[in-house]
Amino acid sequence: MQTLPWLHPERAEALQRGLRERILVIDGAMGTMIQQHGFEEADFRGERFAEGFDRERVIEAHAHGPGCGCARDQRGNNDLLSLSRPQVIQDIHAGYLAAGADLVETNTFNSTATSLGDYGLQHLARELNEAGARLARAACDAAEAETPSQPRFVIGVLGPTSRTASLSPDVNRPGFRAISFDELRIAYREAAEGLINGGADVLMVETVFDTLNAKAALFAIDEAFEARGARLPVMVSGTITDASGRTLSGQTAEAFWYSVRHAQPVSIGLNCALGAKELRPHVDTLSRIADTHVSAHPNAGLPNAFGGYDETPEDMAGMLREFAQSGLLNLVGGCCGTTPAHIAAIVEAVRGLAPREIPRLSDAA
Ligand SMILES: [Zn+2]
Ligand SMILES: [Zn+2]
């Protein structure tokens, strides 16, 4: 797979150059910014989904109408806003780019058939990924036109889905699986192709809590690249979900890296679930063992009693500056609870600090 040429050679080269020169900054949370709009059901639906289903979807021998069974609540289906409120999504990207972000993540975290099935919209996976990538692309192109010396990159996001392939959701049936590797592979392939068609510069398998899901995504990405005869750089970011420092599927940061290293990602990192402080030892581990770039985009601290996040831009930027001074980072950004103000503070905090040097590992593990 690594022998395939780059799909966008000048973009891939610009990214590599940026990574050699400095610590690149990824944007902050999409969800936090969407929440601030206080959207209701009707906002999520827009015209096309006004009845709670897709008016444009023709199902053979089925007449859509009241009681046809297709309608679902769409409130909280953030990814649908790429179609129903596209300007809002593009403006959120623009806000992060204005704050100084070098890379923005597409609004596609749940845009796999697997996750969209919860909203009765599994058929929209390809379209939502393509639309999400186009909105981020438009925002990046506009920002790049204004500041041509700072290239801006679209990260096409592939989320973890709502299912786990290596664990049973039912403690009484340990052998049961809610999804198979192949089902995930097919869903991720479709999503990846949408992101590529929409103009993503990079693909990121993000918020990985089950490594088998991530492997299905990486396999699907390779299939998509193979079919196209060209590839994009791939980033992988896992999530440590408990105090023992393991992912949901039970791996330490170290085990996680060695499980995905074969994919030769342009970066390996950690995001979500924890704040910068709790994430630090695990980022430190990756920075010592990974012979690729290291990323971190933590939440704005641990959730408070109301499920919100309290770390101020200054708190978070101060901690991440220390990460950078300690040589842990090549890419940094924010996850849940972070805003353009957080990203602007992080941009300032890491400005002029050298990126982590990729270690030359003596063993060929
Ligand atoms: Zn119907
Ligand atoms: Zn998060």
TrEMBL record:
Gene Ontology cellular-component annotations: cytosol
The pathway is: Amino-acid biosynthesis; L-methionine biosynthesis via de novo pathway; L-methionine from L-homocysteine (MetH route): step 1/1
Q: Which residues bind Zn(2+)?
A: C272, C335, C336
Catalytic reaction equation(s): (6S)-5-methyl-5,6,7,8-tetrahydrofolate + L-homocysteine = (6S)-5,6,7,8-tetrahydrofolate + L-methionine
Q: Name one GO molecular function term.
A: cobalamin binding
**First-level EC class:** transferase
Gene3D superfamilies with a match to the protein in the record: Homocysteine-binding-like domain
Q: What are the EC numbers? A: 2.1.1.13
Q: InterPro entries, per this entry?
A: HCY_dom, HCY_dom_sf, Met_Synthase/Corrinoid
Q: Mind listing the UniProt keywords for this protein, alphabetically? A: Amino-acid biosynthesis, Cobalamin, Cobalt, Metal-binding, Methionine biosynthesis, Methyltransferase, S-adenosyl-L-methionine, Transferase, Zinc
Ribonucleoprotein as a keyword? no
Which Pfam families does the entry mention? S-methyl_trans
- UniProt GO BP: homocysteine metabolic process; methylation; tetrahydrofolate metabolic process
Please state which protein family the record places this protein in.
Belongs to the vitamin-B12 dependent methionine synthase family.
Q: What does this protein do?
A: Catalyzes the transfer of a methyl group from methyl-cobalamin to homocysteine, yielding enzyme-bound cob(I)alamin and methionine. Subsequently, remethylates the cofactor using methyltetrahydrofolate.
The entry's protein name is Methionine synthase
Tell me which species this is from. Lysobacter concretionis Ko07 = DSM 16239
